[in-house]
Specification:
The chain is mainly alpha-helical and about 90 residues long. It has one domain. The chain is about 60% helix and about 5% strand. Strands 1-2 form a two-stranded antiparallel sheet. A hairpin with a 7-residue loop joins strand 1 and strand 2. Helix 1 packs across helix 2. The radius of gyration is 25 Å and the shape is elongated.
Length: about 90
Amino acid sequence: MKQLRRNHGAPKARTTLTLPADSLREAKQIARARKVNLSTVISEALENGLRMHRAAERSQQVLDAYRKAFGRFSDEEMLLLNGIVLESPRKRR
């Protein structure tokens, strides 16, 4: 990959991609509608996808930590820990 440097933003790298025809067609339509180049649309889509992937990985790490910390509790104990009322309150006489 050949490195390209611009005055603004992160360094850029040029590469060749093979994309599904329908995805490429849709990206071109978006580029035309927004009056930007195809590279901008694909770059933004990739950045958004990578951001979502990182968020999913972080979520999985939190879930794993939660399971490790609370894995020894029964389902009923977990409901109590989460503040879920198991029985309706009894009316006082």
